[in-house]
């Protein structure tokens, strides 16, 4: 069976709407972001450590998932672009490295770094030329939910002056 040379590249971004089932799965998959951010920022102080651990771990998981989606779309091309594949892996690695080193830095820096990685991931998917963006609104919603939740936690972390 011949491989497609990037059929997703042919359709202009923003024209293909994600099915309702994908939106439903995304809502459930994104639930840990606002729940963890709310518990960390506004819940009982005794749950703050666990909540921020969930938030940071889920950030690493979702960034790895998004990197895997990018890898899969790029790998579907007749000639995958090595640079784009490397960038995909870079985002996943950055996410897990941040999780592993979080205890060495102030939590505010770690949360800010995750915000930056999410935004760079989104920009690489949407602003770079000739990217195979499937369901761009869905990936924007995923990134927005993550970034808003991380920003809420960042605000609370700055106010509290806590370490990872």
From TrEMBL:
<feature type="transmembrane region" description="Helical">
    <location>
        <begin position="20"/>
        <end position="43"/>
    </location>
</feature>
<protein>
    <submittedName>
        <fullName>DUF3429 domain-containing protein</fullName>
    </submittedName>
</protein>
<feature type="transmembrane region" description="Helical">
    <location>
        <begin position="55"/>
        <end position="73"/>
    </location>
</feature>
<keyword id="KW-0812">Transmembrane</keyword>
<feature type="transmembrane region" description="Helical">
    <location>
        <begin position="85"/>
        <end position="101"/>
    </location>
</feature>
<keyword id="KW-0472">Membrane</keyword>
<keyword id="KW-1133">Transmembrane helix</keyword>
<dbReference type="InterPro" id="IPR021836">
    <property type="entry name" value="DUF3429"/>
</dbReference>
<dbReference type="Pfam" id="PF11911">
    <property type="entry name" value="DUF3429"/>
</dbReference>
<feature type="transmembrane region" description="Helical">
    <location>
        <begin position="107"/>
        <end position="123"/>
    </location>
</feature>
